[in-house]
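task queued by scheduler; priority normal; single chain, no ligands, no partner chains; default sampling; output format set to structure tokens
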Amino acid sequence: MRILIILLTSLTLLDCSTTPVIIDKPISFPSERIALTKAYMNQRYGIVSDSIVINPKMIVVHWTAIPTLEKSLAEFNKIALDSSRADIMKSGAVNVSIHFLVDKDGAVYRLMPETWMARHVIGLNHVSIGIENVGGARDRDDLTRDQLKANEYIVRYLKEKYPSIEYLIGHYEYALFDHHPLWKERDSTYRTEKTDPGVRFMTLLRERVSDLGLKGR
């Protein structure tokens, strides 16, 4: 019994020692992209502001549907949308962006300031911080345990830093907020069907951070 207790204690300490470190890896966000973000805020939400600073109320979790870190970074680094995103181009020219990107091995990269508005979720960008996980696809949930642990770390870090955060959702749940007080999208026809980051991943993540009392809706 004593040997078992020592072994369990050692495993716990080992798990704690692998706490992720946030690595700053800024994507391109020059004045042009800031201007496009302000235009998006005005067009989609009716928000006119001199800055793109947000007051975060929500964390939204995604997968990239791109298999590697390098290719994911390349997509987020673009300033404006290209022809590959024709499905959302009509709703604003600014490229999609994200605050945190988590690689398969659990490495955490911060791509932009946490309180700058990123384009990653319809209707809720103005109040949300986004986490992307490398991998995934509509018919393939391949997110890893290391990514799960890293997401837990980011959620706890953000909740401690921003007590205003009340919600934690998967991207596939965003439409549940239609008509919610936080919802700002002005076009009732602008919706996309999402499955990321998968029910399995969100269920496990919510179990790990249940003590924070974050709401799903």
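post-processing summary
- The chain has a mean pLDDT of 92.
- Strands lie at 22-24, 58-63, 100-102, 108-110, 128-133, 167-170.
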